[in-house]
Amino acid sequence: MLGLMALAIASPSFPAHSTLLDTPLSRLAGRAALLFGAMFVVALVVVLRPAPWLALFERVTRTVLPARLAARVAGMAEGLVAGLTVLKRPGRFGAMLFWSLVLWLTNAASFAVCFRAFGLQVPIEGSLLLQGILGFAVAVPASAGFFGVFEKATQLTLQLYGISPSLALAYAVAYHVSTFLPITLLGLRSLASVHLHLGDLGRARTADQLGDARP
Question: What is the pTM of this model?
């Protein structure tokens, strides 16, 4: 996602005057790419020899955190490292990159198709930028379904390409609703097919929380 977003910012169609907090977006994209590269190197180093790094992390967490919280954080770190073991298998890692690229390009294509449906004069690279910004925006804790955050991030992104705020907001609402409703309805149908209700999920979550609270 970051790579495609950087590609959109580097493209000739990107508005050169665009800034965020008085900093050119192109410069921010470059910094993000460097940060991502550094994180990848760190992840690779940890995955190649996970035991000493996990032991060090556990010692640090036990020093600065309460015992129960430290154990939970250490468990999360172990799960994260286990998920990164794909980096040790070049073939599987390549397949992961390929299908990730297919996924993100398909998602970007849906934004681009909707651009045409609304008659927006936004280059196709704009769809790559939009999905990248949305990826960061929806990572922030927000309302269920990311309503509000999704619309505002989309509106601000499209304004970079000269789209009026009202038209950009209309696009955001239409796209969000048209993609949110089918997924939600399919999810409810799946729950019904296994004879579950939303209340059952709530009770299961409560039971898990009570289990975590026990000494």
Answer: 0.70
Secondary structure of residue 198 in the 3-state scheme: helix
Domain range for 154 is 2-48+89-213
Split into its structural domains, the chain has a count of 1
| Dist CA 200 CA 40 (whole Å) | 39
Residue 207: inside a domain? yes
Instruction: Specify whether the CB–CB gap between 43 and 27 falls below 8 A.
Output: no
145 in any annotated domain? yes
How many residues comprise the chain? 215
Token duo for residue 184: 């939600």
- How far apart are the C-alpha atoms of 177 and 99, rounded to whole Å? 26
Question: Angle 2-10/90-117 helices, nearest 10 degrees?
Answer: 50
Q: 58 and 70 in contact (C-beta within 8 Å)? A: yes
**pLDDT tens digits, one per residue of 50-109:** 888 889 888 898 888 888 888 888 888 888 888 878 777 888 888 888 998 999 999 999
Q: Is residue 83 part of a domain?
A: no
